[in-house]
Specification:
The structure is a homodimer. By secondary structure, chain A is α/β, with parallel strands linked by helices. The first copy, chain A, is built from 11 helices and 13 strands. In chain A, strands 5-4-1-8-9-10-11-12-13 form a 9-stranded mixed β-sheet, with helices on both faces. The longest helix of chain A has 19 residues. Chains A and B meet through α7, β13, α9 and α11 of A and α7, β13, α9 and α11 of B.
Chain lengths: ~300, ~300
């Protein structure tokens, strides 16, 4: 089985929610994605941290088949994001973004990462995403995340990287901004026309939508009694999905659907605790049990009963 | 097969959307619900109209097994609602509400309606809903809709009618207001504790959620390229669901799930045109084809593949 290459941020997050508080908790898109993907496959992680984050704090990732040799320690401080969620956990305000060493992040793939054929480019500058793709041999399967800022300010490199992307993962606001339409079907089609044969639009508590090969697929979020912190839910969704695809060694639409369900399972585990605590406690059996719960939640009799 | 009793409003709707306009189109909760339920079963309709609405305009309902002998013609004008939708069709402003003859609506069931064992009480004053239940012999299966105004102003009669309700159908805002919590699972449980063994929370474009018998079920809305007018989507959802349950002659959870999928099909047909035009054009085959489309949209491999 090949490894999954993940390029993104490692960070400290300071988070306020209506019911709690986490100060300098481990975070970052690459943390959530790799902690989840490591449940399914081996992971090559490329990121940067500062001198204030001991690499030992990431050792739980290694026990999850996440290789850390692509993580650079730069002189300075680690990326630090601080935010607060409103009562419904749907809206958040960014209180501060200190990029620190992440401002100069210039991903360099170790030689043994350059043959990876499964790649997840988490949300970073599209120019860096392009640079990463240029370092990879062959034609990998590329999944891409981005954000409003890049859609608004980096149109050309973003379109360039999209044209080399197989699967793009956006939230509903980003999809609307990128496509210019709020209609989820029209939006997904327009984004697919930019390059990716598969488009996933995440809708937070309302689940996720896939457009691929002219087919639609929709899965709801798992309703949870306890929602603590939504930070990282989207990144663990992507990590779970890409981890499963890598393990499966196949990206057919039926496998993609199963992968999205595992991604949804990952998101549900993430929001039940601060930071990656929910993911750390979970094993493959836990993911399987969430997969089954999502099947029970959504399945109904396919047979028409003309009673 | 028994008949479904539907009690609610018949109205003229004047509707502005970002792309169109309908003046004095046929509307009202009972119109949408009965036009849909009539696809599945015979319907006993109880409502009131004014002298400005010729009963012949409702004759298409009769061709759909909707009995109109419970529709009273009162002196005065028919209920007239006027509203405008914002760009995303999710938010609407009420421009005017002229209750007219509906202000004095006092539902009287014809004698042959009093044995109906399937009842849908559309959104009217909870005191009137209670009054209707008092006119029915036996212990029918009762589905109930209501709205923010009654939750805020008619707490006691609403709680009374809820205690006699089997299935309550609310949208997400109403459920939050009634339960005091936004968490969909906690909210549905709290509302179930008020009486109904089954609680459906409608989420518009995000689908519908069921809590019944300790089980959860979730179905997304069908993504549509063309959305014209969402007016009546919730009422046709309820009508389709109750029509199917009546036809099935059973309210088990598996039948309820199928019924919700037919309700979702009805809502999708409703929003594709103004007034009941989408529903008028549809037949049972069309409903079945939407049922199959919703199954294709949501189904995934239940088998865990530990690849």
């Amino acid at each position: 089985m090949s490894s999954l290459l993940i390029v993104g941020s490692l960070a400290f997050d300071t988070i306020e929610t209506p019911t709690g508080w986490a100060d300098r908790a481990l975070g970052g898109s690459a943390l959530y994605a790799s902690a989840t993907a490591g449940i399914f496959c081996s992971v090559h992680l490329v990121s940067v941290i500062g001198e204030d984050l001991a690499i030992e704090e990431l050792s739980f990732l290694e026990s999850r088949r996440v290789d850390l040799s692509g993580v650079t320690v730069a002189s300075g401080k680690t990326f630090h994001w601080s935010g607060a969620y409103e009562a419904n956990l749907n809206n958040r305000r960014t209180l501060s973004t200190d990029l620190n060493v992440f401002a100069d992040f210039s991903p360099q793939l170790p030689l043994d990462y350059r043959n990876d054929q499964m790649v997840f480019l988490a949300n970073i500058d599209p120019s860096l995403q392009l640079d990463v793709l240029g370092q990879i041999d062959g034609t990998p399967f590329v999944a891409l995340d981005t954000m409003n800022m890049w859609i608004e300010t980096a149109g050309e490199p973003l379109q360039n990287v999209l044209s080399q992307t197989d699967l793009v993962i956006l939230n509903d606001e980003e999809a609307e901004l990128l496509s210019g339409t709020r209609n989820i079907l029209t939006s997904a089609r327009a984004i697919s026309d930019m390059g990716p044969s598969a488009v996933i639009i995440k809708k937070g508590e309302h689940g996720a939508f896939l457009w691929a090969d002219g087919q639609m697929f929709s899965v709801p979020a798992l309703p949870l009694e306890t929602m603590v912190d939504p930070t990282g839910a989207g990144d663990s969704f992507a990590g779970g999905m890409m981890g499963y695809l890598t393990q499966a060694g196949d990206t057919s639409i039926d496998t993609l659907k199963r992968a999205i369900v595992y991604g949804t399972a990952a998101a549900s585990l993430t929001v039940e605790a601060f930071s990656v605590e929910g993911l750390r406690r979970a094993d493959r059996d836990k993911f399987n049990s969430r997969y089954r719960a999502l099947h029970a939640l959504t399945s109904f009799d396919p047979v028409l009963r003309e009673v």
